[in-house]
Amino acid sequence: MVSDDKTKGQTVIGVDMGGTKIRTGKVKDNQIIAAASDFVPKTDKEQEVTDMLIKLIRQVFDKEVSGIGVGVPSLVDAGRGIVYNVQNIPAWKEVYLKDVLEKEFNVPVYVNNDANCFATGERFFGKGRDYEDFVGLICGTGLGAGIIKGGHLMPDTNCGSGEFGEIYYLDSIFEHYASGQFFERQFGVSGDEMAKRAGNGDQEAEKAFSEFAVHLGKAIKTIMLAVDPAAIIMGGGVSESYEFYRDALWKEIQDFPYPKSAGKLKILITETQEIALLGAAALYFNATV
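Above: the chain sequence. Below: its structure as tokens.
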């Protein structure tokens, strides 16, 4: 279990590089005490985006800051802090972000993808505090995960160990069946719209969630075989509709080759507010605590 003493008193900046906005937050004692944000510049010039990021960090930076964590929706060389082909930021094709920010602010900088930030944020600030081994699973417009082993983010070579959504499944990949894309592809509506219909008692919507649960259950069983986590903590838009597919999901999970593992597994839904910023900040604690 993570004790508050391990993070108490330290001030860290978290950065969420979203597709349309850049957000920065100063985190102290498990709370965001200052924040700034602005739209990502629409430009093909790498430096203009980098300058905007530096400006937003500077707005919340002070001499108490111990480090900076940055979450990006892209492949990352986490060891060297290089980001590649950031989604919706075409100007960033290969950016040595760690080097740039450490030179600018003279504090250690940690960079990782958004799914790994989610898992790390849950480990230090959310429901993952009670678990040494769990998977943080983002089930929204896509399907991706961060893996916590021995209380820390599992290291890998190319920041791709949690990309379970890319595993081949049926005629495509898991992401097309076990994320919000399932509802778009099969029914032509968003997961949010399907949840509204299910909430109003629409039987077809309820059936759609039951079908979705079978696919998600198979994805989770694949995760169990690969990682054997004590818990799976879910975030993302589709996780907010858990009540509509919980029973069908567990029914699918019970059909697992190792019944004891299925019986012990916990599936939890995140309740952590501002998980993107907190998760980015948590990269610092993951490296130092």
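The first helix runs from residue 46 to 60.
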